[in-house]
Amino acid sequence: MRYVFVGLGHRAQIYVDALLGLWSDAGGIAALCDPNRTRLRYYLDLIGREVPCFAPEEFGAMLDLADAVVVTTVDAAHARYAVEALAAGKDVVVEKPLCTTAEDCAAIAEAAERGPGRLVVTFNYRYSPRNSAVRRLVADGAIGEVTSVHFDWALDTIHGADYFRRWHRDGANSGGLLVHKSTHHFDLVNWWIDDAAASVYAQTSLRFYGAANARARGLADRPARAAGAPELGTDPFLLDLSADPRLKRLYLDAEHEDGYLRDQDVFGEGVTIDDNMAVLVRYEGGALLTYSLNAHAPAEGYRAVLNGTAGRIELDVVERSWTPPHAAIDPTASGKEHAAGASERLVLHRHWREPEEIVIENGAGAHGGGDALLLDDVFRGPSNDPLARQAGYRAGIASVMIGVSAGRSAATGAPVALTAAGTRQAD
Length: 427
Known about the structure:
By secondary structure, the protein is an alpha/beta fold. It has three domains: 2-122, Rossmann fold (3-Layer(aba) Sandwich), CATH 3.40.50; 125-208 and 271-362 and 391-425, Dihydrodipicolinate Reductase, domain 2 (2-Layer Sandwich), CATH 3.30.360.10; 211-258, no CATH class. The protein has helices at 13-20, 37-47, 59-62, 78-87, 102-114, 129-139, 159-162, 171-174, 177-180, 182-193, 211-216, 245-252, 255-258, 370-380, 393-412, and strands at residues 2-6, 28-33, 53-54, 68-71, 91-95, 119-122, 146-156, 197-205, 276-283, 288-297, 300-308, 311-320, 343-350, 356-358, 416-419, 422-425. Residues 423-427 have low confidence and may be disordered.
């Protein structure tokens, strides 16, 4: 299998490393596509040999070398490359979110249904053993019919802050956190209860990051970026790219080519996404979801509660129990479950019975061994998985449309109904 890559930032490396390592039997890297020659050079050095390199405008020519395309670009560009690759009959692997707009969802669906290519969205959280255990309990009828879900997610000032210093801070690139981050969570709920959203209502706000909030709290005269700032090393919100050789090569050494600054101040101008979100979803089967996301918490983790006609499931996860007073060298790295104070607990409550703690069987590696299971499915094809963890374009669209609808609802103050063709404002 010949794999080509488009978009060579941080996230591409998990797939490149896989094809160079344990999954080398599944195929090889045939070509790379990125506008930045410095980042191309980083990945060529990682691969250890020269492969053809293309600029984005040459993507069509690169497809002649491909059986499958791995898309790890800025979110807003996912649809462009996925649609073109599918139209050319290629398989596609897309980082979540699948795309950022209802229009892009429709274009991807049309391309996927018309051609022979297979599209996979890499929802790695499905493969985490704790989340798989929830899916298994629900599918086995442990709590009967699911009537409601409460999902509370906290991003700390390592992970959450990072969205406000890089390209995600502009909603035109990422769709905001309701799309870029929350679609990950919406997909979990969709998958857990095996249902589709019917209507969405949401409220969001920017309360912590951004220039206006900084001024309101008396944080004036902040540096525009971390590099060269005298506060670097003492300000917990300034990320020192030079402290990590990998990030230095990918971003600091590459910025002269395209002007992309990976270490912008989280309290600077240009932040157009929100950091607090509250969403209410009604599913077609009648279940209700209450969802919240906070991106400036002092600790990181989540709590998911599923209520049913026969009981209740409670999943409590601490990924970081506290945030050290400095910016992480690599805030986007996997493996938070190995941080100090990390814990997870899954409890099943049935009516008229003592609570039962469910043992979570973790494997080696990131996300309790879930990343390795995901990569197996991506590069070797899905096994006969009773949990149906591999996500195709329909699952990708379903999660994006909740995020897009929530964003529309927050902007208009009205609920949004989801239809087969997209969204419409509810009466």
